[in-house]
Each structure stands twice: as C-alpha cells, then as structure tokens.
Amino acid sequence: MRYFVRAFVLLFVLGFISANGLANPGDTTWVQAQNDVQLDWYNDFDAPVTFPSGSVSYRKIIMIFTLGKYQCPSGTQYCGDWDYTVQNFLMTPTDTFELSRLITPYANASYPRTPWSWKQRYYFDVTDYYPVLKNAATIRLSYHNYSGGFTGNIRFAFIEGIPPRNVTGIKRLWHGAFPFGNTADPIENHLPATNVMAPANTQQAEMNFTVTGHGSDNTGCSEFCSKYYQVYTNNSLKETKTVWKDNCGSNNLYPQSGTWVYNRAGWCPGELVSPNVHKLGAVTAGDNLNVDVNFQSYTGNGSASYIIESALFCYGPYNQTLDASVENIIAPNNYEGNFRTNPICGNPIVVIKNTGATTINSLSLQYGIAGETLQTYSASGMALAPGKDTTITLPDLSSLTTYKNTTESRFQVAIDKINGSNDGYTVNNSMYSSFVTAPDWPGQFAMIIKSNNNAAQTKWRIEDLNGTVLKQRSPTAALTVYTDSLELPDGCYRLVVTDANCDGLYWWANTAAGKGYLYATKRDGTLINFTNGLPAYPATLASDFGCGFTQYFRVANTLPADQLLLRGEAKDTANLLTWETGLEVNTDRFIVEYSANDTAYNAIAEVKANGGTTSRSFYSIKHKPSVHAAFYYYRLKLYYADGSWKYSNKVTLSPVASSEYAVEVRPNPFDDELKVRITSPSPQTAGISIYDIQGRLLFNKNSSLNTGLNVVPIDGRRFAAGLYTIVIQSSGGQKVARKIVKQ
C-alpha cells in the first residue's frame, strides 16, 4: 500500500485516464462516508458504509479526506487554530485498521490561506486494503483533541481494473499510543514480537508502520526529538528508520498561525502522515514470519509518546510482466497539495511507478497541453525496480511560455514505451491535470529586499529554465534595503527565494530576528503580485515564507501581431512605415528603431501613442536610410505610462532596385554556407573573390546579376577556421570589401 498527497484532482472527478481517453462513468464506484461532519473535542465520528461486495477487480482504491472549517460558538478558544492528530479507521465485524492519518494545520481564519471557507484535499491510496474494504462496515474518524473548528469529509473511489499485485492476506500488528522513555513502562512492553503465517499464493511480504511523536518531555521528546527504530524478521535486521520530518518549513500550506516551520517526529502541521513501508522480502506460503520492532534506547521524564499503527501485507506475484503507471502530475497542476511547485511555465514534473515484475531501464513519454501536438521524452539508465516510483522533470514545454494564463487548461502525459516495448497493461498509462500558467511580468522590473537581523540567511536569485543565474542578491548587512533593477528578454524564468533558517524574513515566533521584506515592482513602483499565496508587501505575513519559495513568471516583451502590427513599403524617396494597434491601455509613445544589419538598432523617430482606446488606431512615418544596404530592418518599441515596454513585430525591406546598389554578406561569422546578397539597379556582372590573411586568393567567381535582389551562395566548408577578406566588384564600377570569419 502507498499513500500519496498527490494530484488526482481531475482524475477523481472523472475517473482514471486510460490510454484511449477518460474512463467510462461506470468504471469508478463512489462510496461516501463522513459528510462534512463538524469535529469537536475528544470524539469519534462513526459513519456506516456499504462497500462493493468484492466481485469486481479494482486497480486503485483512493480515499479522499477533505478537511474544512466551521465557526465555533462565540468565546471558543483555538477554533480551527491548532495542529491536531486525525486518525481514520476501517471497522469491520472482524477487523480494525487505520486507513489514514493527517495533522490539522494552524489555520487561524485571519491568515491568507485559511479563511473560514478553506478546504484541503488529502489523497490516500488504500488499494491494498481491498480484502477488507467490502460489504457493510464502519468508518471511524477519530478526533481526540481539545478544541473544534474543523470539518471532515471522507469519500472512496473504487476504480475498476487489475491491481499490480493481489493481496493474499492482511494482519494488524501493534496499535495504540505508547509511552517513550518511561523506565517504569518501556515502549518495548507494547511492541512484542509477533508471528504471522503466510497464506496460500504468497510470494512477498511488506509491513506498514505509521508512527508520529507527541508530547514534550525535558528534551523535547517525542514531538521535537529525532529517534530511530529497527525492523527485524526472524531475528534478521531488515531496516533502521528515523522518525523525523525535516522539511516542515517547506509546507505546501503556508503561512500558518502557529509554529508550522518547526520540524517534528514524523509529521508537519497541515500535512498527511505517510506510513513507512518495510519490505520483508520473498515469502513462501506457509512460512512463519516473526516480526519485531525495537526503538532506540532513551530515558526521559515520562511525558513522551508515539502513536503507532502497523499492518503486515502478504502479496501474490505481479499481475503484469512489463507495466508502468503514471502516478502523479506534480506540475503543471492546480491541486492545492502541490501549491509550492505551481504554476509553472517550463518543465513539467511527473511521477512514474513500476507496477510490473520487470525492472524498467528505459521509457518514453508523450506530454503536452491537451489538444496540441505532444512532445516526446525518452529516459534511459533508470534501473527502476518493481514497486518503486521515480520523479521525472521533463524538458521544457515551450507552449507554456506563450499559452494564455487567464483560462484553466489541461495537461496530459502518457507512457509510450517501456524498455523499448509496449506496456503490458495500458489502462494506467495516462493522466490529465488542470492548470493555469505562470503569470506575465514586464521585461523591466525591480526586486527589493530588506534584510532582517540575520542578513545572510535570506537570498534570492532569478534564473532561466537551464538554471543559469541571471541576477541574484545575498544581503550582507542587517536591516538594509537592497534594490536591483532587471531587464529580461522574452521567456520563462523563476525567482527562487531561500532562507537558511527556514523562518522567512519575519516570523512571530522569532521576533529577535527582526523584520524584513521582499517584493517586486514595475518601473513606476506598482507592485507585482506573486502567486505564492502571500499578501503583497508591506503586509506582515508577506515575509512569513518558511524555507523560501519559487515563483515562475513569463516575460513577453514582443507583442503579438494582432495587438501591434507594423508594416513597411520601400520607396525611391523614403521607406513608408505604418502600424496599427487593436487596443491600447496606458500607452505612452512609440519609438521607431532602424538597423542596416539586424543587430545594432537605432532610434529614428518618436510618435505619441493614444494612451487608452478600445478601437483600432493607425500611425505612419517615412524614413530615408543614410547608408546603402541589401536590407533595411525596422521595429517599434512601445512604452507604457509606467515605463515598461514591449516590441512589435519586425519588418524587413529591400531597397528599390532602380535607385540603389547594395551588398550584404551573411552570416558573419559563417560555417557551412556563406551568402552574398547583391541588390542591383540593372543587369550586370559581379566578380566575387576571397583572400586569406596573407593575401592569397582562395576563391574567385563571376556571377550574372539581374535587376533587384541576387543571392550568391558559397560553400563555406572549403575554408578553414580563420579571418578572410571578401571583395565584390561589379561591372558597373562598384567595389565592396568585407572582413569575414569562418568559425
């Protein structure tokens, strides 16, 4: 069994995705247990349920726990404000098992992410409990805590198909809240070795061990201390596991109104608790398994404890020889459980699991925005063992850079090949997610950070999708404001903010660190809102980001042609440039830029913009180039009232043939091919010669020229790397010499 706080959002609304599209409605059976029950102090909330009879095979069974809030009666203390343990049990006439566990967040309604309307979905894969998830049963939501304010909703999705393995037997082992460090009552008294006989058809065995530390004695145990336990089978040590979560400051639900950044023993506030899965190896039917767990030796003052639930699972063989499944789309995804990773504009992140008996060494995936051409990615050298999963960061999905960010869209990923062959079971090969793209930022903006008393702890950097750092700031002086201006070309970027102490630039529980802030502004000082869930500066909570955050954003300095369209026409006297806009909001002026080589542009005119209009606007100027060239290049730079700008499309004009003779040699530097472009006012001939640095003639060719543009290609592969001189002399008396470089 595996638990996942993962992105099954659309998947659970419409059913799992098959290789051919969405599953039919009848493929998923829903069972409702608790329905937004209001949780109050020290109580068990039981819901009778009727599960499927067991006559149908299910490839996945997902339990969805939705945590919400309600307003307690006036005067109630800590209403929805505290980190409480929530356990969910399956109770049948013969068995009781903990199906899931989660910890409520510090969710004061004054905080931006947890208003009274807040809800959070937690997903638990309970497929391996199918032998007991049958017929009439009771689901118990156990909430033994000293204040209310939360609601609980539990639903089950039974998704038809073939599971990776059939479960041949389940046995509940140790369960309860046990003291730790109490010499009068050692925890080992509650964890005696247990014998389990493997049922028929068993080939493998695994033990799930869910443990969270609570209480705080003289050394902070068990909530705030890191200890380990060891798993033995038939007196053989199988694994040593530390009970500790070291990433609470990177919680997807942040900021919270309590001590959310503190690491804890097996849990973080607002997150689900995943069981530790211990593989016990190959087992034969009839074998006796003696299973034992021993905790690290420790002596405290008696107030520490661990809540423990464990079960032993026996499995038959894998049902498929070669099989993989798409388990999760981390990004792009709107699911609140993947909040810190989204929205993106570049590299999708997916999770693939080996659900067959054969080790996966390579696979290929297809991915992209639904309805568009998909990209293909191939991975090799994986060595992904049966039952294991892996997180894959896919190459940049370029369409996310320009895709509209005002509408919700769908991303899809599908497994194409495994080890060069077709997947043996295609039903679990595809998945969709709903998403919105990263926000659009102007190409010119400023980053402002004020350090707190621990100046060196908090840093920021802006990098492209290749990880190249384009700008960064590492403050060195306490309580100091640093302002950095940036100008970025079109593309997708990420702002990465890190804090070494995982307490942001201001946190109520560490006021001695002082108060800092970080934000971004446009050229006119207008704030750029982040999508990290925090209010914009100067609100206090904007600085409460724990270990940091990543903000993806897009820059589009070049306007689409349907918004700003530049046209041009070459004339004898002057080139005519015209342009039109479809809509103008806070526009200020147009700068007309010109280049004779498409590299260095110069401003040649300024035209006042309309400023604001919903109708089409038309503009025009004339320009006579001062130098002769084979081509003339023009573009517009539109400035807005806040000082930001964007480019128009580019226009390339050829001189009128009857009036000019011009030569252009491109590219320079050149590689495989060199092209000489000659604009001639009349038919004539031109001699083209190339000399090396010693003046030796290496190439000579005579070409006939027609009126207008002529392009003479030269094979660049005949030249070694170095510096050369090309001379073009026409029969009309024009002579042009250029320095050229072979790469």
Description:
The protein has 2 helices and 52 strands. The protein is mostly beta strands and 743 residues long. The chain has 6 domains: 163 residues, Jelly Rolls (Sandwich), CATH 2.60.120.230; 155 residues, Jelly Rolls (Sandwich); 112 residues, Immunoglobulin-like; 116 residues, Lipoxygenase-1, CATH 2.60.60; 90 residues, Immunoglobulin-like, CATH 2.60.40.10; 81 residues, Immunoglobulin-like (Sandwich). Strands 3, 4, 6, 9 and 11 form a 5-stranded antiparallel β-sheet that branches. Strands 27-35-32-29-30 form a 5-stranded mixed β-sheet, with no helix packed on it. Strands 39, 40, 43, 44 and 45 form a 5-stranded antiparallel β-sheet that branches. β39 and β40 form a beta hairpin. The N terminus is likely disordered.
List its salient traits:
2 helices, 743 residues, 5-stranded antiparallel sheet, Jelly Rolls, 6 domains, mainly beta, 48% strand, 52 strands, disordered N terminus, Immunoglobulin-like
Briefly characterize the structure.
This protein has six domains: 1-163, Sandwich (Jelly Rolls); 165-319, Jelly Rolls, CATH 2.60.120.230; 324-435, Immunoglobulins (Immunoglobulin-like, Sandwich); 440-555, Sandwich (Lipoxygenase-1); 564-653, Immunoglobulins (Immunoglobulin-like), CATH 2.60.40.10; 662-742, Immunoglobulin-like, CATH 2.60.40.2550. By secondary structure, it is mainly beta.
Shape: elongated
In total, the number of strands is 52
Q: Can you give the helix content as a percent range?
A: under 10%
Largest sheet: 5 strands, antiparallel
Please state the structural category: mainly beta
